[in-house]
Amino acid sequence: MNELDWPRWPNEVAAGYRRDGLWTGETFGEVLRARAREHPDRVALAAKEGAVTYGALDRRADRLCAALAGLGLRRGDRVLVQLPNIVELGEVLFALLRLGAVPVLALPPLRSSELVQLGEISEASAYFVAARAGGFDYRKLAREVRDRVPSLKHVIVVGDAEELVPLRELDAEPVDLPGPDAQDLAVLQLSGGTTAVPKLIPRTHADYLYCARVCRAASGFDSSSVYLAALPAVHNFPLISPGVLGALDAGARAVLAPLPSPDVVFPLIESEKVTHTSVVPPLALIWLNAAASGSVPGHDLSSLRVLQVGGAKCSAEVARRIRPTLGCTLQQAFGMAEGLINFTRLDDPDEAIVWTQGRPISPADEIRVVDDEDRDVPDGEPGHLLARGPYTIRGYYRAAAHNARAFTADGFYRTGDVVSRRADGNLVVEGRAKDQINRGGEKIAPEEVENHLLAHPSVFDASVVSMPDEYLGERACAYVVPHGEPPAPRELLGFLRGRGLAAYKIPDRVEFVSELPQTGVGKISKKDLRDRASARAAGVQEVDSDTVKL
Ligand code: OOB
Predict the structure, then answer these.
(1) Of 90, 185, 526, 542, which one's alpha carbon is 20 to 30 angstroms from that of 255?
(2) CA 438 to CA 432: how far, in whole Å?
(3) What pLDDT, on a 0 to 100 scale, did the predictor assign at position 540?
């Protein structure tokens, strides 16, 4: 991999992190080996189809690693991994991490438009999918992506592979290969994004392991704890905060839920004696309502000690209900795949747990809250959150021009979040300065959706903004200036789907307008559109004939 592909921490800063013991020399492959030696027969990963012990996971990772090397995969190569919550996800991740090949972690809902971009930017040479998951045939998607991404040589399938490569046949005698270094890339995470092209987040073994360990300390997770991944495990929140990788590093058990619904998750909490799990706010509400109404009766949730809620702002009403209804401590989690994670602490006063999004997990995290000119604002006042530290990236992968804007000259990441810092150090998320929609924790880059809309022959101009939503926090609303006769909204949305856009990015509502409001300097005024969308959502404005509610 080219040295210029991603910006490293400055040498003296990295040396400090190593000297202070924040970055150790360990890699994920070595961590698994060590845990397998310590307790080979302990269950590492449990999922619907079965469980795998540390010893078995370690052996399987070795054999798969050798088979992948046999296919020609090398240290530093990038590999698309789009797998649901199944045991094979763990096998594939550890085989790649041991080889030093870098998984590009793709959420299961992503489709061809996104996967092709990820494949192109990373020049991925292989792509792992499950044959079918959630009623969707990933083989079909993988063939399309393979045909459009020249670097993709191998499509490897969990389950019935048809003419593609079946994962279960990738098995070879372990070989001694030079593994990665701790400061090499472990994974490429996907940014929530504000731009038309997705941004890849380069996370190293050293920084990712450090992140997992500090998260563990702040959430009271140890080797006797049990972590449940209810959200898609490739996301940073359930993967490393402390998540599945944090659990495996601790020698604890990680349980993978195929779906996050109470009828699936509650029995798993009971049977696996789950102690920790993490959800986005709309899911917390679903769980609360299910537990309170007894709609999934007879499940003992008493093992649950910590429910982490994050990815989007948790309302105080939801926050307040968690302990009385679920009998566990709420830990608000305000994090980002770029690095910085804030948690409320388990022993914080209830008031802080309910009303704040927590504070940085590491004493080595540096944060600033600044005004538009990058001057620090006093505590209690809203400002832009900047972050730097031992697990916050210094730049995106292969994105030099964007990095110049997204990072300060001295290496702080501009999170795009507007927060205020309280006297007790806790942050309150007040809003967002970045052009992004947070749909119940799922992030949408409006520019990406706008470009797809503009590709339609009957669309002259388009702007996508958030509208408030009681349940998801925000939904997406598209304002479209038609070219002549407006297309039928269903046709327009079908067009977006046909272009291979993930379903959660398809606007929830389309409104046709004769022009888009402009700012003084002639740019589209997203603020005016957001005001208009929120007035409509609040029912203030009458819905007129050019509005189509979907
Ligand atoms: C997590 O990571 P991403 O990369 O999907 O999204 C990061 C963005 C943040 O910049 C912020 O805008 C928003 O999601 N966010 C929150 C929040 N947690 C994340 N906004 C308000 N309140 C919160 N509690 O979402 C993520 C990664 C690791 C741990 C937890 C969440």
Answers:
(1) 185
(2) 10
(3) 56
Q: Is 417 in the pocket of ligand 1 (CB under 6 A)?
A: yes
Domain map (residue ranges) of the chain: 28-212, 259-432, 437-549
Query: Looking at this protein, which amino acid is placed at residue 19?
Result: R
**452 C-beta closer than 6 A to ligand 1:** no
Q: Whose CA is nearest to atom 3 of ligand 1?
A: 336
**241 pocket-lining for ligand 1 (C-beta < 6 Å):** yes
Q: Give yes or no for residue 276 CB within 6 A of ligand 1.
A: no
Residue with CA nearest ligand 1 atom 12:
417
Q: How confident is the model over 346-362, as pLDDT tens digits? A: 999 999 999 999 999 99
Taking 50 as the pLDDT cut, the residues of the chain under it are 541-550
DSSP secondary structure string for all residues of 149-191: -TT--EEEEES--TTSEEGGG------------TTSEEEEEEP
Could you tell me whether strands 43-47 and 547-549 are parallel, antiparallel, or unpaired per DSSP bridges? unpaired
237 lines ligand 1 (CB under 6 A): yes
Centre of ligand 1 to C-alpha 259, Å, is 21
> Domain 259-432: which topology?
Rossmann fold (3.40.50)
Query: Are the beta carbons of 201 and 103 closer than 8 angstroms?
Result: no
Domains 259-432 and 437-549 share a fold: no
* Ligand 1 proximity of 236 Cβ (cutoff 6 Å): yes
Nearest protein Cα to ligand 1, atom 20: 312
Give the Å distance between the CA of 276 and the centre of ligand 1: 19
Query: Within its chain, how far is the Cα of 245 from the centroid?
Result: 14
The listed CATH number (3.90.180.10, 3.30.300.30, 3.40.50.2300, 3.40.1190.10) that belongs to domain 437-549: 3.30.300.30
The CATH number of the structural domain formed by 28-212 is: 3.40.50.980
Phi/psi at 111 (5° precision): -125, -165
Ligand 1 pocket residue status of 336, Cβ below 6 Å: yes
Ligand 1 atom 25, closest CA: 311
| pLDDT tens by residue, 214-269 | 999 999 999 999 999 999 999 999 999 999 999 999 999 999 999 999 999 999 99
Distance 298 CA to ligand 1 centre (A): 33
84 close to 110: Cβ distance less than 8 angstroms: no
Protein residue whose Cα sits closest to atom 16 of ligand 1? 312
Cβ 246 under 6 angstroms from ligand 1: no
Closest CA to 190 of 336, 36, 394: 336
Q: Return the pLDDT at 548.
A: 37
pTM, two decimals, is 0.97
The single residue listed with the structure tokens 């799990």 is 277
Q: What distance in Å separates the CA atoms of residue 138 and residue 174, rounded to the nearest whole number?
A: 29
> Which of 208, 134, 549, 145 is closest to 390 using CA atoms?
208
CB-ligand 1 contact for 392 (6 Å cutoff): no
pLDDT of residue 344: 99
Position 311 scores a pLDDT of: 98
Ligand 1 pocket test target in 201, 237, 336 with most atoms within 8 Å of CB: 336
Q: Compute the distance between CA of residue 349 and CA of residue 364 in angstroms, rounded to an integer.
A: 24
